[in-house]
Protein 1
Amino acid sequence: MHRMFRALMVLSSAAGWGAAAQLHGQAPVDGAGKATPARIIDIDCSAVKGPRSMVYQHCVGAGRVAEGLRADWQAQLKTCKDAIGFQYLRCHALLHDELGVYREDKQGNPIYNWQYIDMVYDYLLSIHVRPFVEIGFMPEALASIKLSDPNPPEGRNVSVFWWKGNVTPPQSYDKWDALIKALVTHWTERYGAEEVAQWYFEIWNEPNHPSFFSPVQEATRRDEYFELYAHTAKAVKSVNASYRVGGPAAAGMLWIPELISYCSTNQVPLDFISYHCYGMAAQHTHDNAAANLAGGGLDESGNKRLWLNRDLHNTAKHVLASRPLIAKSSMPNLPVHITEWSASYSNHDPVHDTYFEAPYILDQLKQTETVASMSYWTFTDIFEETGPAATPFEGGFGLINLEGIKKPAFFAYSFLNQLGAEELVDPDDHSWAARDKSGGVQALFWDLTDQRGNDPADDWDFFRRVLVPKAKESVTLKLRGLKPGSYHLSISRIGYEKNDPYTAYLKMGHPSQITPAQVAALKAQATGAPDKERDITIADAGTWQADFPMREDDVILVKLVPSVGSR
């Protein structure tokens, strides 16, 4: 039987919270009309757990460095910086020929050109975002196999993506070492050693995946990457021993013990471990152990059938699984950077656009605060691995779509960033509570539900539907230990038709192109503005309580800001 709680304040309406729960604190009902039990989040506002983790903020990804020359890309990064505070940015293709980094004269002497890299990095630093440098792919003049080679060796992959990044090793390690040393020296001269010492240098991208690294022999893939790693790490450190190098930047939790052993045995520098993980399964029926280990794949053409893993905590489990491996190694204290993660490894998976992605993000971040960084892939749909985007919402990785429309994923991060600096003790596994220096208190809580049930549809079929959520158990939020006085209360939400432009887009008939008026309408669906606002008074007892009806995959942010005279 549903246990009723006397609400000091109930904030709900059929329009704002869904018809499943009306005014006066009624409990939501399930599909059979039965009341579901309340979920209680009871917070003592004087019980501080400690400084709030900022792992979510440390780094974010983007497609490739050359995209950073675009004005709209730069504007979207600034939007993310202002709303979320990302500190580092990681991109592919630093050494791609489109940036003109490396060529040779007729005698084979190297010619370096840093101008386009400088333009991108100057912009990053101007908005206080530092590079998380991914070193790769191979300049054409230095590649062991040329893209123009009409008869590449049998079984050798040469390039990846629409923009054709050369993934072969260098034909000369002497020239490769000199290139890396010259580039890092240039950065040191341009930005100063103190600045560059705060960067990270990650060597290559997913070398264990056959699409991203093309060794002479498949059987020697790992050894050839270790050779590339050793040369590159030593070249970086030759400029300044304090610069941080790491890898293996693997697709999944692979090669970690082996790389540590190799570096320890051969006196090769290694300052951090990095790898990637995505929440996909190999098939729709079961959580696939092999897929979990590999942590991802590649949907280069955008034509794969893909299924989100039935274990919605799969990504977090994968992130945490590396720690025991490192702890047993000769370098037990190496920090772990997850330099790519998301629900899906495909840039054509509509799960990225849905309101489901918001609680999915928050649930993974809640569980992974012990790693050094969780770099969401990516901040923008200005992303061209399979070529320019064909439609406004085609399942792109970004927090913001091509037209600058903010997705639910964006608001998951921006809501999280509105929490105060001190985390409060919170026994609920799907929420955070915090306070700030002004005496303000914030609570962020969510539901995470797999709405697919037993539906065998793949992601493209399922998440291209308008998903009307069912009611879930209500949440009773109780805040104790508040300073008596006046507060401004605001309540914001992500969910079905709330900060949910994708649903509105689907209801438009998912047009392949959208007009300026449609863009404006979709942006109006996604402002992040509070659902409810009002001034309240906290009595001498210092307690405030309210009931919140919930639907599947809702996210709610509650903020109490002391009035000026009450601080």
Protein 2
Amino acid sequence: MRISQLFYQTLKEVPRDAQIPSHQLMFRAGMIQQLASGIYNYLPLARKSLNKLEAIIREELEKKGCQEVLLPMVQPSELWEESGRWGYYGPELLRLKDRKGNDFCLGPTHEEVVTDMVRRNLKSYKQLPWNLFQVQSKFRDEVRPRFGLMRGREFIMKDAYSFDVDEEASKVTYKKMYDAYTAIFNRCGLEFRAVDAATGNIGGDMSHEFQVLAKSGEDLILSCDKCDYAANVEKALTKRSEGKMDASALSANEKVHTPGSRTIEEVAEFLKLPANNFLKSIIYVIDEEPVLVLIQGDLEINESKLQTLMGANSVALADDKTVRDITGASTGFAGPVGLKKKLRIIADYSVSHGLNMVCGANEDDHHLLNVNYGRDYIADQISDISFAAAGDSCSLCEGTLEEHRGIEVGQVFFLGTKYSEAMKCTYLDKDGKEQLAVMGCYGIGVGRTMAAAIEQHHDDDGIIWPVAIAPYEVVVLPLQMNKEEVVQTGEDLYKKLKDAGIDVALDDREERAGFKFKDADLIGYPLQIVIGARSLENGELEVKIRKTGEKKNLPLGEIVSFVQEFIQNEKS
């Protein structure tokens, strides 16, 4: 590509809302333009990088027997109603009506559509396994789009869906896809970790996220310093168990007046007690059932763990009316003792270790002192529903959890029969009996992966592309465009590199040398080949390696072979 003809413009200024390096650099390098909040145009440099990333994805998935399809972005509500997600997915699902008044949505994911497609074709166990994937735009109406391609509303995603005869076969497919993702991100030159993860709105029983390690990452990852355990903080486990109370240390209950104090912080200040001496009591509505959830006052309820524990589709805080109907009091004064209505109680392990705790008295402006687990109340279920933290013990060994920041670029889910049961996706087994297909689903944020690569590979001057996904592998920089020998050498070398199968750009613009160098560093070409009149007199050209800043003077006749060897080594 001749840069004089390339559709792009490098810029010095960045949008005010561009807070992270990838957003700033992609805008400055002329890779993206914002069309609307969270919606972007991908310009040629970005599209080139995406094409290479998508090619890697396709190659690795096809090695695992995946087949590519393309499904509609606009989906009918009937399929979502069948799966049960139409009412549960939330405001991120952009709903719309056609001219006849029929309900549709813009697809944030395609479990329903692909399950419907497969059930129309699936008859016999002999047809399975199937693993179908697509690369397509998705839409999620994020409440606060931010960080450029990291959290947009419209985004490019690779999503795949597997169908197997049973759980054992499905988990074999899950492992194949896990291995494919490992190969994909390794080939992209990324430092990443595969971590145990929550399943969220997708559902299922098992999931792993692939997290690119970066200081700007939104996700908090905890990993063991002694073993391979790693998990998203939403799923991370630590060694916790139910405690035992010393009956001789238990004090009698006492109701106290706490006017205007409803939060843990306010009551702790009023009573001059530490937050860990309190019993945080919160009423949730879990799949339309009110549930009282208890945890030690200085800890936070991990709603992902709670959702997984309950096998629920949705977890939401109860509204004020529901709280008053159950407790007889306003929000902020709930407690497990003396509830107006009986309901299920779920408790974190931490409450069983607390002695003589304080909780709401189910009466406005009142709290109850000396509340103890086992004597004053019993939970229907006690489990780990709090967030693990750095410094906690590993759940698998004697190690300690450490904290990292990560960018989620991919996730694999074992779905089981969540969708096939709801949507009647069945086959006949070898005995002629009808069985449910067992499913998995697997996503990669393609645009996000490109942005994550920049987050991990950049410096003050610009992007430092991994060779495998760089828009161009090398740029040829003739400096004196008024000198025929410089221009001709650039043209000749450009042609030789193209003929050798190298993805090369030629900066043929009538610009100053400093301008060309700054653009080359900003855009992040892995190799820069500098052609100047003085170096030509010696029969040598300067080659700069962007990643290290190293410069080499090489004979003109060795340039092509050096570039080929460099690219091969970087991709291997």
Protein 3
Amino acid sequence: MAQAPTTDLLARARAWLAEDPDPQTREELASLLAAAEGPEGRTEDRRAWSRLAERFADRLQFGTAGLRGELGAGPMRMNRAVVIRAAAGLAAYVRKEATSAACASGLGDLVVIGYDARHKSYDFARDTAAVMVGAGLRAALLPRPLPTPVLAFAIRHLGAAAGVTVTASHNPPQDNGYKVYLGDGSQIVPPADTGIAAEIDAITSLAEIPLAESGWEVLGEDVVEAYLNRAVTTVDPSTPRDLEVVYTPLHGVGRDTLVTAFKQAGFPAPTVVAEQAEPDPDFPTVAFPNPEEPGAMDLAFRTAATVGPDIIIANDPDADRCAVAVPDHAAAHGWRMLRGDDVGALLGSALVAKRATGTFATTIVSSTLLGRIAAAAGTGYAETLTGFKWIARADGLRYGYEEALGYCVDPEGVRDKDGITAALLVAELAATLKQSGRTLTDLLDDLALEHGLHATDQLSVRVEDLKLIADAMQRLREQPPTVLAGLRVTKADDLTAGSADLPPTDGLRYHLTGEGVRSARIVVRPSGTEPKLKCYLEVVLPVATAADLVGARAQAAAVLDSIKRDLSAAAGI
């Protein structure tokens, strides 16, 4: 017989059950309590007790990523009770931040709410609207499940004080999330996150949160039309449009918006991967609905084998990311996925060709190639912490990208990553190159010859126990590597200290050098949205001629593989 659970745990679980507004999670929690207590108050089910303890060990912490976690009952899961508290904290924050003059004039009190097609997304969005109206604010729901960039656009378009999108992006099917934006259309950063978290902490009971039964607005399709009208301005109507594309939304909400955007921009309709065309919260054809994950693109490759397109484009489920694959006879399936850094450099080059001016920005974990492109073009350049919440705040931003397939090509329209406008710009670039008998791969070769071969890779370790990540970071701090892959570590930065250019963050950065290598760089950090330790690697090699590219790529791949092995050993992962 298992030990009896503590009275405190049972009391907290019962108190939560009494307030839970969702019949589904009430039933789940009641069942766990019954199994954990057993007949006559005895604990009979160790697994039920363990599951109960997990749900009440702590609570989901609200931060710069908002909330993200597994669906289920209890404060450590995503559910209506957690979302209602988060919405009430946001409402209190917005009310405090809004000036009395702004509210009196009818400005500064609107919160726009979007949602994807995951389980519970609409429920969480509706609850958020009810909380906002109950708090005396105005609320507007997007008309249906839509891409996250439509929500980011709507905030600026409607002059809202804040916005929320309910999505877990590319997380597994059992997850959902809650992402918050402020009135500039960019994601929250400190101190807004801590301010909202403090308001959430001040809530003692759901009963004290007024929930309106009506009074919010459901926006019409005109907001989607406005987004699309803006999106097509990212491409030049005089440029070529002859391009065959296979597209997959990975069971997400991107299909209708992307297909319409392509049509309005004058491109042929992409061939949509039939098995992944419809929104489906269970994501039945993929283990993880992320174009970067092994197997996620297999159906797109299979469709391409039949259609014979010029390129393949994929969005993640909320369509704020964009993945691109190009023909490659040497690769499995005959297609090669471009890395986010490849696409980031291609789009940066395309915007330079369009004579774009302003700041080109990327993150400290992305390739340094964009900096060389910007320097050669005489435009500004900035490096930020990881995430679009930081990229969006680069002074004079004209273009920003992060290696995790996120691209902002029109910051005045959407001040966040946008997989729809990125896809349009990729299509325009590919069609323009095609007219000259060239490809995206040819342009990548040109960039390598001009700026050096910038090869990137990633070591990503998913864990069940977050302590393993903390232990690895501590090990690297206490015993920092001095040589990796035969390259000497010339500088090691502990990013928790911060700097004049970067706020403090949990991360480590190493600069390396060695014979035949222009430079190398490694950044190690815990993921902000998943239970992963992520290591970002880059090696830069000089390339004299086009004939040297094949050998240089082989050399770079070998160096990156060796770095991964040595870094794994140093971190103990």
Protein 4
Amino acid sequence: MKIVVVGGVAAGMSCAARARRLDEHAEIVVLERARHVSFANCGLPYHIGEVIEERDQLLLQTPESLRDSLDLDVRVATEVTAVDPERKVVAAHDLDRDETYEEAYDALVLTPGASPIVPPLPGVDDPRIHVLRRIRDMDGIKAAVDGAADDAAPVRHAVVIGAGYIGLEVAENLRHRDVDVTVVEMAEQVMPPLDRELTTPLEGHLREHGVELRLGTRARAFTEGADGRLRVELADGEVVPTDLVMLAAGVRPATGLAEAAGVELGPRGGIKVDAHLRTSVPDVYAAGDAIEVEHLVLPDSWLIPLAGPANRQGRVVADNLCGRETTFPAVQGTGIVKVFDMVAGGTGANERQLAAAGIPYERVHLHPSGHAGYYPGTRQMHLKVLFSPDDGRLLGAGVIGFDGVDKRLDVLATALRGGMTVYDLEELELGYAPPFGSAKDPVNMAGFLGANLLRGDVRLWYPEQYPTILEGARLVDVRGPEEYEAWHLPGAQNVPLPTLRAAQESWDRDTPIRLYCAVGFRSYLAYRALVGRGFTDVRTLSGGSSSFRAARDLPREARLDSHEPLVSYAEDRTGPQAARPSP
């Protein structure tokens, strides 16, 4: 069998290498338009920032090493220009020799990836405007920052358009090189894949490190000023002079070759594949960023351009080519980013996606520390978990903080993949020692809080319900007087938790009560005390004032730096397992 793979990065090389391991006698040809294969494209921003000092560390394999180790015929600088499915040949253009030839195949694997979105704006073809997808893109940006590009002065200011994963990584690494950075993002927040209340602290952290943010606007044109500098004109009328622009506004699937060959596309513009990753054309498979995949939580097919799924898709294609019936499962879109000292990530669906899809959900917010609070070196994180109101099945999670974020995200991603519920999170036995976690891990705590909500042990109110939720209600702030004086919700009555039992004696038990504290624990204790004393309509603010201020994008005090005791939201959890609803 002869296998021809178009594209030699994540999915393509994963497919070729796996096919060789399964079939020693197959002829395997990989055609790659660029001059590098199997490189670490996720590491490109870090070489620009000189965090990864040696460029060669990003070059994982070469055509020569792949030939020697796996007997693969890998041809770089070779662009596939057409596919003839009836004759089962591709037209390949050798860019170095400027020659076109035909390559026959028994099975064709399309892994063309995705292309950075370059908006059709005036001046966008200026050579000082860059994208970051390939080694040559990285080389060009780094040369500009170094001052080695066309004898130009080193870059002192850059505009990054797009505040997603790549945009924020580039912004961080340009700051490592002492470049002033302005980030422009069309959404009203950075990291649009995460819910708003999770991103407010990240925005503050970016500003602390000298990154200027222009949110809720977009680039309108690129012009050259009288001083020769590049000018970025924004839709809100602001003009930002700069030396370099980095476009990081997303990617679109590279489907031109497939479409011209008659391959059916999906509703989102990617290549349509079945569970075996077969396209609509016989003997043609596809994998990687160009294909549409099933989502683990959301309906319909999705474009989810992530390295992990792309590599696994390549393996699935190879399995099927080599006689192993293998299907590719749904994708949950787990992603994570480091921005200076902070880490943010998510898995599954966010709240906006669930609402748009009409999927019922409940959610909880909590602010535990990364490890035991008495052991030095930890800070609070903001954890949000979404789950089904019927059976507690996990639907998504987002987390932002400093230490231990990746650990909790991976546990939650695994739990989501396994179909677990918030009740299961309660029971997870996770590694604990003071430098690494707490006896009640944040994941357990999320389970306690979610299970308490579904069992009826607590009723929550949320920032988006403000101020309607307060109509006709007594609003009670159970924090201390100093916290109350520093900031409180308008109309709130300050009743510190130690004084609550005495104060409530004169309250009407039929008047609705809305409680809050800093992160939700003290108000939970107040909730249990009031319900136990006969109050009939009590709710506590999910995540406390920390979540409220972040969700409402209030000033700097929204940072996750409360000194409230970090203990379980379910300290009184003694109910039998019989209280757990049937799945």
